[in-house]
Amino acid sequence: MGHRVEAVRSDERWAIKVPSLRGVFSQARHLDEVPAAAREAIAMMLDIDPADVGPIDVHVQKQGGAAAQA
Length: 70
Hints:
This protein is α+β, with helices and mostly antiparallel strands. 19% of the residues lie in helices and 37% in strands.
């Protein structure tokens, strides 16, 4: 099972949200760091090892608009 992750640029960081898991948010400085940050946040919420999280499907949100898959 994978997780859809939404990332939107917020000042100098990427704000990360996992819509399927209420309350799972994180941030990353660079877009390429988003999957790892999301994986850690998901693992914490589910109390599992980050390696067991599964695939991360990152969708970049344009500020105030639609998503583009990264």
